[in-house]
Design goal:
The chain is about 25% helix and about 30% strand. It is of the alpha/beta class. A 6-stranded mixed beta sheet has the order 10-9-8-11-12-13, sandwiched between helices. A 4-stranded mixed beta sheet has the order 1-4-5-6, with helices on one face. The chain binds inosinic acid (IMP) and magnesium ion (MG).
């Protein structure tokens, strides 16, 4: 058993938390429960504390007598330390808990394909709100036309548009994906519906990788003579940049790894994950 864990279930729970990118502390606090003439005679140290959820977790087995004893201690703890958030979890409850807090769970067939969660739901929501506030501030007194590029941008544009407080129009484009060897140019499969001439365009992208797609779209949009074009990308894989496109708003800079989830796909799979995850390397061509 790797230190500091006492039981295999604890080690396994820690690995699940690591997978989902949830911070944890192992037995960080002991709660005195009974005293006798100033000496602590009974105490309780919950197995885990999860700072993101402000929650203590006590893992338990199926042994009924142990569970009854733990229940008694937890009741006492809640009496003496009101406001302390503590739960008892059985192994089969792990994934249910994580689902409740928006960390998953992945469906059984998706788990083996994911290496790890890179950006949790909580971090995504927080950063999207920050970007929305910044954009609202920068466009004060103006109207913005948000142009999203399908399909990877779906989750991001749906979330960020609700964080923007200036008048906003939405339009969507679809383009043929770049085939990797540069032989076919980017083609427009679905054009703008809005007339953007003289308007302030905010191009919204899921991820900037080589920058070739974005560069092509910006050049195309410029032929429509907008008043301005700015770019907002959720993810930036800067290490792979070939064409230097100026990205005005970036959610997260990420390492050179293939990521899925929150709209991003691998062969049309994984778009529905509520977080950004790194795909296992051996799945990539
Ligand atoms: P670029 O032209 O190389 O910048 O490619 C950008 C496009 O490639 C994005 O809009 C995505 O559709 C796709 N892409 C690049 N990296 C990833 C990734 O890690 N996961 C999923 N799609 C990606
Ligand atoms: Mg895309």
């Amino acid at each position: 058993m790797p230190a500091p864990f006492a039981h295999n279930a604890e080690y396994e729970f820690a690995r699940i938390l690591d997978f989902y990118g949830i911070d944890w502390q192992y037995e960080p606090r002991t709660f005195p429960l009974r005293w006798d003439r100033g000496h602590v005679t009974e105490a309780f140290s919950p197995d885990f504390y999860l700072p993101d959820l402000n929650m203590y977790v006590e893992l338990t087995t199926l042994k009924a007598n142990l569970t009854a004893e733990k229940n008694r201690k937890m009741r006492l703890l809640k009496e003496i330390y009101p406001g302390t958030n503590i739960i008892m979890l059985k192994k089969q409850d792990y994934l249910r808990l994580l689902a409740k807090y928006g960390y998953g769970p992945l469906t059984a067939d998706q788990v083996p394909d994911i290496d790890r969660v890179l950006i949790t739901t909580g971090r995504l929501q927080k950063r999207v709100a920050e970007l929305g506030a910044q954009i609202s501030h920068d466009y004060t007194g103006r109207e913005v036309v948000m142009v999203g590029v399908l399909r990877g941008v779906l989750c991001f544009i749906a979330d960020i548009m609700r964080q923007i407080s200036v008048p906003t129009a939405i339009d969507l484009m679809a383009i043929s994906s770049y085939d990797g060897n540069g032989s076919n140019a980017v083609r427009i499969l679905k054009d703008l519906d809005e007339n953007i001439k003289g308007r302030d365009v905010l191009l919204v992208e899921d991820i900037v990788d080589t920058g070739m797609t974005l560069n092509h779209i910006v050049e195309y949009l410029n032929t429509k003579k907008p008043a301005s074009i700015k770019i907002c990308a959720l993810l930036d894989k800067r290490a792979r940049r070939i064409v230097n496109v100026p990205v005005d708003y970036v959610g997260f800079e990420i390492p050179d790894e293939f990521v899925v989830g929150y709209g991003l796909d691998f062969n049309q799979r994984f778009r529905n994950l509520p977080f950004i995850a790194v795909l296992k390397h051996d799945l990539l061509p």
